[in-house]
UniProtKB/TrEMBL annotation:
GO terms for molecular function: acyltransferase activity, transferring groups other than amino-acyl groups. PANTHER family: DIACYLGLYCEROL ACYLTRANSFERASE_MYCOLYLTRANSFERASE AG85A, ENTEROCHELIN ESTERASE-RELATED. SUPFAM superfamilies: alpha/beta-Hydrolases (SSF53474), E set domains (SSF81296). Pfam families: Esterase (PF00756). This is Esterase. InterPro entries: AB_hydrolase_fold (IPR029058), Esterase-like (IPR000801), Ig_E-set (IPR014756), Mycobacterial_A85_antigen (IPR050583). Residues 1-22 form the signal peptide.
C-alpha cells in the first residue's frame, strides 16, 4: 500500500463514532427511559430508552441556549429546550447507534462536559460518555467470572527523555501461578485518544475475562500505551513520522515488559493491533520490524496487500476488520488477496456499526481467540 493510502486511513478519527447514522425513527417514543450506565453516581440524566433514544437534562437556568453534540449525523446534535424550573431538556431526534459515544454540551457558545456523565479521553480532550445498550452486550458485560487485573506502569524512555505510562492487563490466575509465562498483545488506541481508551471505552479487560472463562481464548497479557499521535494536528498528517513511537515501543517498552512481567519472548509470542490511527501505526511498525511481531490486526485501520510483506513465513495471522458502515468491501478484498497468497488472513465486519467502539469491541472478541494458536 502506498503512503498516500495510509494518510487517508489516518483521517478516520476515532471521535467520529459519536456522530451516528440516521435511522428511521419509530412512530412513537417509548417512555421507558433509564439513566445511562455511564452516569456519575446518583445522577438521573442522561437517560436512554429501549429504542436507543437519548434524553438529556442540564441545570443551567441562566443560559440562553444549550445543545448536545450527540445527535443524528449532519444535523448538529440535539437542541435542548428550557423548562419552567429553569432546567434544559431534550431527546435525540431518532434512535442512536448501539454502543459507546462521546459527546459534550455547547452552552451559549462554550463547550462543557455534562455534569451527569462520566468522562472519557477522546477528541483530544476529556469528553462525556454515554452507552446505548447493544443487543449483544453480554460479551463485554461485567460477570461473576474470574477477573484479570489492569495496572498502570511507568517506564523510562531515553529516546524522548520522559517517563511514560502504559496500562497492562494480566489475565485471571496471573498472580497465583508464579511460573507460568504468557504471550503479549500490544494494543493501540485511536487518534485523539490515549492509553486509557481500550480499558475504559473498549472494556478490553471484561471482554478478555469473559472469553477466557468460556474457554474461547488463551490467556495472554495486553499492553496499552500512548501512541504519540496527538501531537499531529488535523491537516498535518502528511508530516507524521512513525519512528519516534516505534523506538518507544520496540526498544523501550517491550524490553521493560519482558523484564517486569512473565512473558514468552520472541515474535511467535507477540501480537500488535490497533484501532483507526492505531491500526495505521500497527501496519507501519509490523512492516518495519517483522522480527518483533508475528500476529497483525488492523481494526478500522487499513489493510495489508500481499506485496507489503517481504517474508510471509514470519506472519502467523493477519486480522482486518471494520464496521459495515465503513469500507467492508476493501477489507474483504484485501483478505481474499492475502489468502490467495497463502497467508493466514481473517476478515470481520461488525454489522450496523461505523467507526466506533462497538465495532472495535466486537473486533477484539473475534480476534482474541485466534491469537497465539
Amino acid at each position: 500500500m502506498k503512503k498516500k493510502h495510509f494518510l487517508k486511513l489516518a483521517l478516520l478519527f476515532t471521535f467520529v463514532g459519536g456522530m451516528c447514522v440516521a435511522q428511521t425513527p419509530p412512530s412513537k417514543v417509548i417512555e421507558d427511559f433509564k439513566p445511562s450506565e455511564l452516569n456519575q453516581p446518583g445522577k438521573e440524566y442522561p437517560q436512554v430508552n429501549s429504542q436507543g433514544y437519548a434524553r438529556f437534562r442540564v441545570d443551567v437556568p441562566e443560559a440562553g441556549s444549550v445543545r448536545v453534540s450527540l445527535g443524528l449525523g449532519g444535523r448538529g446534535g440535539t437542541k435542548l429546550e428550557k423548562m419552567e424550573d429553569g432546567s434544559w431538556m431534550g431527546t435525540t431526534e431518532g434512535p442512536m447507534d448501539e454502543g459507546f459515544h462521546y459527546y459534550h454540551l455547547t452552552i451559549d457558545g462554550g463547550i462543557f462536559n455534562d455534569p451527569g456523565a462520566m468522562n472519557y479521553f477522546g477528541s483530544l480532550r476529556w469528553e462525556s460518555g454515554i452507552e446505548i445498550l447493544a443487543h449483544d452486550r453480554d460479551f463485554f458485560a461485567l460477570k461473576d467470572v474470574p477477573h484479570g487485573n489492569v495496572q498502570q506502569i511507568l517506564f523510562s524512555s531515553k529516546s524522548t527523555n520522559t517517563v511514560r505510562r502504559a496500562f497492562v492487563y494480566t489475565p485471571p490466575g496471573y498472580g497465583k501461578n508464579l511460573t507460568e509465562k504468557y504471550p503479549v498483545l500490544y494494543l493501540q488506541h485511536g487518534w485523539g485518544e490515549d492509553e486509557t481508551a481500550w480499558s475504559n471505552q473498549g472494556r478490553v479487560n471484561l471482554i478478555m475475562d469473559n472469553l477466557i472463562a468460556e474457554g474461547k481464548s488463551k490467556p495472554f497479557i495486553i499492553v496499552m500505551t500512548y501512541g504519540m499521535t496527538n501531537e499531529t494536528k488535523i491537516g498535518g498528517l502528511k508530516s507524521f513520522d512513525i519512528a519516534p513511537f516505534q523506538t518507544v515501543l520496540v526498544d523501550e517498552l517491550i524490553p521493560y515488559i519482558d523484564v517486569n512481567f512473565r512473558t514468552l519472548n520472541g515474535a511467535d509470542n507477540r501480537a500488535m493491533a490497533g484501532l483507526s490511527m492505531g491500526g495505521f501505526e500497527t501496519k507501519l511498525i509490523t512492516l518495519n520490524k517483522p522480527a518483533v511481531f508475528s500476529y497483525y490486526a488492523l481494526l478500522s485501520g487499513g489493510v495489508y496487500a500481499p506485496e507489503d510483506i517481504k517474508d510471509k513465513s514470519t506472519v502467523k495471522l493477519i486480522f482486518e476488520s471494520c464496521g459495515s458502515r465503513e469500507n467492508p468491501e476493501r477489507v474483504n478484498s484485501s483478505v481474499k488477496s492475502l489468502k490467495e497468497a497463502d497467508f493466514n488472513a481473517v476478515s470481520y465486519v461488525s454489522e450496523n456499526t461505523g467507526h466506533e467502539f462497538l465495532t472495535w469491541r466486537r473486533s477484539l472478541k473475534e480476534l482474541a481467540p485466534k491469537l497465539f494458536k
